[in-house]
Design brief:
Elements: H1 2-18, E1 30-35, H2 42-54, E2 65-69, H3 75-85, H4 95-119, E3 123-127, H5 130-140, H6 145-156, E4 163-168, H7 171-184, H8 197-213, E5 218-222, H9 227-241
Parallel strand pairs: 1-3, 1-4, 2-3, 4-5
Helix pairs in contact: 2-9, 3-4, 4-6, 5-6, 5-8
Length: about 240
């Protein structure tokens, strides 16, 4: 018993002392992430924002704009994405394994692509980042929140979004859009898209709770309107809250 207690104490001390400092490492760049459940329109809206920036509609027209996705964005990350989404073996994947794979993809993306881009002063747009892990693995998969938080900190190493755009949508509408999108593109739903409605209700609730906890970073956008209406809301919010428009 005493040996177990000593080991636990040493382990707790190691974890606490190993937590990375959450400092802003974005240097002269600007980092925007998009979050939301399936069918909310993230891919459409992040592509539109990237195009908006690339046309020179920013305070510094010559700034580099980078469009990324998670999991993925690097050679290593794309391999992990394939495992997470479509590998037949992933059907038996444990939630802890899922957490570690997402973290591994993120760690590589941060160090290989995001940090160097921000150091160059680029605008970096990423389809999903650490908030997805907080909500999908921490809330919907019911993993230990402290462990999920530590894993997020370890993977990002202090590289955090300046702004996160959360596209909020009722679960039923999102699932209907997802089914329509997959049918139109002849795409099979991936492993996570096949989860239950209860799972996605937990996702939505988790995101909205997170937004309440971090109102200075997370902008909640009603994604129930047309694509044009949602784009206008995003641009309006960014103009009001940032210096890059």
């Amino acid at each position: 018993m005493q040996l177990n207690r000593t080991i636990n104490e040493q382990s707790n001390h190691f974890i606490q002392s190993s937590l990375p400092h959450e400092e802003n490492l974005n240097n002269g760049g600007f980092f925007i992430t998009f979050e939301g459940s399936e069918g909310c329109g993230k891919s459409t809206q992040i592509a539109r924002l990237a195009e908006f920036f690339q046309k020179g509609n920013v305070t510094s027209p010559s700034r580099e704009v980078l469009l990324l996705r998670e999991p993925g964005g690097t050679g290593v990350g794309e391999q992990i994405r394939s495992i997470l989404q479509y590998a037949p073996e992933s059907a038996a994947m444990a939630p802890e394994t899922e957490l570690l794979l997402f973290a591994a993809s993120r760690a590589q993306l941060v160090r290989e692509i995001i940090r160097p881009a921000l150091s160059r002063g680029a605008i970096v747009l990423c389809d999903r980042f650490l908030d997805s892990t907080t909500v999908y693995q921490g809330v919907a998969r019911a993993l230990n929140q402290e462990e999920v938080t530590w894993m997020n900190q370890f993977a990002t190493g202090g590289t955090l979004p300046n702004i996160t755009i959360l596209l909020d949508l009722e679960v039923a509408i999102g699932r209907k859009r997802m089914v329509s999108r997959n049918a139109n593109s002849s795409t099979m739903p991936d492993r996570i898209e096949q989860e239950s409605e209860v799972f996605f209700e937990a996702i939505r609730h988790g995101y909205l709770t997170l937004a309440e906890q971090e109102p200075d970073r997370i902008i909640v956008i009603d994604a129930s309107g047309s694509a044009d209406e949602v784009t206008e809301k995003i641009l309006s919010k960014l103009k009001a809250l940032t210096h890059i428009l």
